[in-house]
Write a structure and sequence with these properties.
Layout lengths: L23 H5 L35 H16 L6 H4 L17 H8 L6 H11 L4 E3 L7 E4 L12 H7 L5 H10 L6 E4 L5 E5 L3
Antiparallel strand pairs: 1-2, 2-3, 3-4
Helix pairs in contact: 2-5
Length: 206
């Protein structure tokens, strides 16, 4: 706990996404670039000299608002109906961040566009799998305090043991893992929830 992991950039602070829809192959590919020193989302602050953050699996240790939001999202995923995410995503300034770039239009339509199927069930499956992994409690006692799933985002990938790599491969492929090691961090989908139960982000990329 206390390991600093950067928040995704707020909506509207990065250039708008291209209007041309991505092909299925492009959606599945994780675009990687070398880490920079800007301290942003492209360079997760995982200090190899710091103790590794505690990985927690016990949902009973979550504050009640966090546990409630976690369970509501899981329930929506299990229903197979992506519309059930709409009230959880919200709207306006407190809307869940769904992209590192500004999105235009309806958030549910945007999520369906990320999915390999037309109904958004693939993205629901990814979201459920992410929230079924262990989590970390980061930036404790600061305004940036968060509970983040999966825990891989806060750990150096070269420090994962064999059991943890099996858990990682439930979410990404071995090829993705090799690419992420070259990048230096886990950059696939992750979820952040604040201590008061605000679903802050569900994003992927660098």
């Amino acid at each position: 706990p206390g390991t600093a992991v950067p928040m995704p950039d707020p909506l509207g602070t990065t250039p708008p996404a291209a209007s041309q829809p991505a092909s299925p192959d492009e959606r599945e590919q994780i675009e990687l670039e070398r880490p920079t020193d800007d301290g942003g989302i492209a360079n997760p602050q995982v200090d190899p000299d710091e103790p590794l953050p505690e990985v927690v699996y016990d949902l009973g240790k979550l504050p009640e608002p966090v546990r409630r939001m976690h369970d509501l999202i899981i329930g929506a995923c299990k229903s197979g109906d992506i519309e059930k995410l709409r009230p959880l995503i919200g709207q306006g300034d407190t809307m869940t961040q769904l992209s590192l770039s500004e999105i235009e239009g309806d958030p549910i339509t945007f999520l369906k566009g990320l999915s390999g199927d037309t109904e958004g069930q693939e993205i629901l499956a990814i979201l459920e799998e992410v929230l079924s992994a262990g989590y970390v409690h980061i930036d404790v006692g600061t305004p940036q305090e968060l509970y983040v799933w999966p825990y891989f985002f806060a750990l150096p990938l070269d420090k994962l043991d064999a059991r943890q790599r099996v858990e990682l491969f439930k979410i990404v492929t071995a090829g993705d893992y090799d690419s992420m090691k070259q990048f230096g961090a886990y950059i696939f989908y992750r979820v952040g929830i604040t201590p008061d139960g605000q679903w802050t982000f569900f994003v992927a990329g660098d």
